[in-house]
């Protein structure tokens, strides 16, 4: 209640700030005898046929409507004549017309067919509406045209066709957006906003994709900015932002509904195919001239893509993982480990998506050098694990519910107040250092907003219920509950003496009486561990549970004012600011508690200003320079400034842009306060998180340093000098510049190109550290250690360079061909804790070398998980006939070097291709569209990350009814 009262107080105060302006506007209108102007008109195509569903907007305001079935529209406004009316529709060139005293009741608008559309208006680049071609930074926009033409099953999935975007599929309902390198399953350097609200988990610190987004039918547009956007949006937008905007109930009215059915997992042996359904409904209604309501709901249910890679895991934890050149000090020349997926020929078999058999996470035993069976002396042996489906026991079923309700009221002229509720619920798997299952995620967001043409004030809260458990640790716990690892290893050793050539027979002997998947004993033990918090002991077992929770909340208040009119348009000046409060609630299961036993809170605040000016140089040349600066402060770190300078030079249809920005990022709550479970896990960078992991009394060491020690390349004293220091955690920094070019030539050819360069310092990553079980260095020689993922500041300098090109060409008769290509490379200069440049094992300094090079990766993970090259090519025609449209898309992504977490590994993922297609059929009499589509229609399975599910074909048919009962 206290926080809700603060929100109401914030809205009241903000409303009071603009009340005088509102009153003046109303009084001025009344004093001049001004009345409401009722506009009316008709929209038709080149052949004189009426166009239904055309968006009509009064330019410079938020007032709009849509044409009816006969092409007619009506719209009321308090704006004085003359004014500009804009009409836009998919596949047609936007038209503007001036409404005057002699035509405002009979506006006749004709739209001309245009295959290439490049006149979209965006707001994300500078927080004010502007032509996308004249934006100072690279901006991508997906709207109704792109959604309708895309073969993707949802608007969010359509992002996979945007240049430079890596959309990592973790679950059927959970996909992560990555841009410009460091492709993370949990990208906390990328900001996702839904109607201005942060989409990310308050405690875990990463976006849940579309798990808790808005209904597909309510998405009006998605804007995407690749690259640092911190100068206007704060430190969380270090690598870019995505702004999803829902449809206004004033402009998009009536009842819309969609029914979609499909299937996936085709060709899966003894499993697929599996069906899924996706149902959505939306209703919006304007009541009178000022009030409007909107409600939407969507439910998806089906079977997830299955993580079923059972090949032997490729990881640097393997002995002799890198092939080396002894003549050059043992420098790595490539990957020397050859996975052996035949369990009967591999003592150390560790399946990628088999859990409990992990060689470095409690699933392996190393026999001592004096073991009585000489065949097993110094031998590492893994026990038998369980597949992901066996551990989950749900046959891969997934569901997702999304809903939102909002009330909107027009206050005076050009001002709108609204309140809204946004809800998301579902189950999914996410991959961090481990695979983690969330069986029933719930999130509520409540927003209150007041906005006008030159300002907004907004307050919202995110309330989350997220409980999950670690799939890999659950499998290990089930194994240990049945039989301790030492006992299993003893029985294996005895059996292998009797069966000297059969590893499989020895495992079978040691596995006698093992809990079988799906059995009552298996389910009982799994549920005991999965439903017991990791702070509590499991009843009947001397072990902690595995369940963690993040029921944290976020409270956010922000506002912006455009001062341009107040200073007589001398320049475009924006000012704004925000206050944010995190109330963590994990019970110590995900992040540590304070010494008093209470939960941590985090307070942040920031303020920004932007100044820009359009300068006309002759009749065809304009220049728009702009400068923005923002200050942000997190209570646990020093505050900092994030400046941005940019300029756009327009010469006729040609637009050249350039920008430079310096930014920093505060660690997410999880990166700051995360604590490990009893069997390993993630550790935050704060002092208390380190104390919880006993890192002061029992130091941990980088996995690469431990391997150097066990291989004899460094001494024990050298290893001790490299122990993790828990006292140096700070913010992450970046400096980046970018140049670009956009042009629409002869209304048939559109091109967009960019080049960027970024430099990171104090890069934050969760690196693998080994902590000896008994606090002795000798423990490493006996495999007696636990693996921790510790968030710390990398000492290295990291550079990312890339470029991209997108183009679209109108072939005539409605056909367009489009494509895009993106290239990026990550390089690194390695430094030690004292700032000295490190050498590779041959003695050569490592300066600006590719992070995927083996001699660099050999010295430690850098996590630049991104393909160097990828491209898309599409052929599209939304109007092959007056009813039929179709799209064909080809996507290709090059191989990429992956360094991923505790149980994932180190591997070159192969390149992959996907062919996507859709055919749509309009049924005007029912205001409906039938769509038959599919992604990866040839069902060539691929993975976008090591340990993630394999993505095969997704096929669907949908029927969409739009704006019935309008």
From TrEMBL:
Q: Where is the signal peptide?
A: 1-20
The record's section on InterPro entries has:
Beta-barrel_TonB, Beta-barrel_TonB_sf, CarboxyPept-like_regulatory, Plug_dom, Plug_dom_sf, TonB-dep_rcpt-like
Name of the protein this chain belongs to = Outer membrane receptor protein involved in Fe transport
Keyword flag Membrane: yes
UniProt-annotated location(s) = Cell outer membrane
* Bilayer topology: Multi-pass membrane protein
- Record has Membrane as a keyword: yes
Boundaries of every TonB-dependent receptor plug domain copy: 133-240
